[in-house]
Amino acid sequence: MDFFEFFLSFEQHLPLLIQEYGLWIYGILFLIIFAETAFIFMFFLPGDSLLLTIGALCATTPEMHVGYMILLLFISGSLGYVVNYYTGKLLGDRILNMNSRLIKRDYLLKTQDYFTQHGGKTILLARFIPFARSFAPFAAGSSEMNYLSFMFYNIVGAFIWIVLLVGIGYICGTTVLSFL
Predict the structure, then answer these.
(1) What is the tens place of the pLDDT at every residue in 101-110?
(2) Is the separation of the CB atoms in 138 and 87 below 8 Å?
(3) Which distant-in-sequence residues (6+ apart) come within 8 Å of 125 by Cβ?
(4) How far apart are the first and last CA of the chain?
């Protein structure tokens, strides 16, 4: 199994990793959620399905505590967006001024206009759309979205995303346990 295959199906390997690494699983999961939200090129990581699986495992595995996991992943997802925002802020001008056949200046200008009008909603809703989750904070930074506004929607979005998906997974895991 190669590196990308492993990460594409990471949630399937999670029970084995919990057995092997014990409490280190908290750090591993922190890094995965952080990487998916902090770096545009890590969009392939399994964010939503991983959060559902984590919730189910919190219900069925004594090593994983749902409250600690929600707090840890909330911090991870929020910090990831901050890093991605500043990456966009730092590299946005270079990309905007770059002459490329792949990146059209008109599209980048339209993105800036879009974030001026709808940036908050985009940051909030992008949490639930895999590719957008990795791209939205970068676009917000490159289009110089107001940082306080960005942080508000970042924190609210991370909270809703983590609590909702881990919570659904936890309820499903608890339901399965009640049938056994």
Answers:
(1) 655 666 666 7
(2) yes
(3) 132, 157
(4) 33
Contact 119, 149 (CB under 8 A): yes
Say if CB 52 and CB 162 are below 8 A apart: no
**How wide is the angle at C-alpha 64 spanned by C-alphas 44 and 53, nearest 5°?**
35
- Both tokens assigned to 28: 């591993």
Percent of the chain with pLDDT over 90: 31
Return the closest-CA partner of residue 169 out of 9, 51, 15: 51
- Sequential DSSP letters for the chain: --HHHHHHTHHHHHHHHHHHHTTHHHHHHHHHHHHHHH-GGGTTS-HHHHHHHHHHHHHH-TT--HHHHHHHHHHHHHHHHHHHHHHHHHHHHHHHT---SSS-HHHHHHHHHHHHHHHHHHHHHHTTSHHHHHHHHHHHHHTT--HHHHHHHHHHHHHHHHHHHHHHHHHHHHHHHHH-
pLDDT tier at 122, thresholds 50, 70, 90? confident
What digits encode the pLDDT tens for the residues 11-61? 666 777 787 877 888 888 899 899 989 988 776 777 788 898 889 888 888
Asked if 137 and 154 touch (Cβ cutoff 8 Å), the reply is: yes
pTM value is 0.81
Query: What is the distance between the alpha carbons of residues 51 and 48, in angstroms, rounded to a whole number?
Result: 5
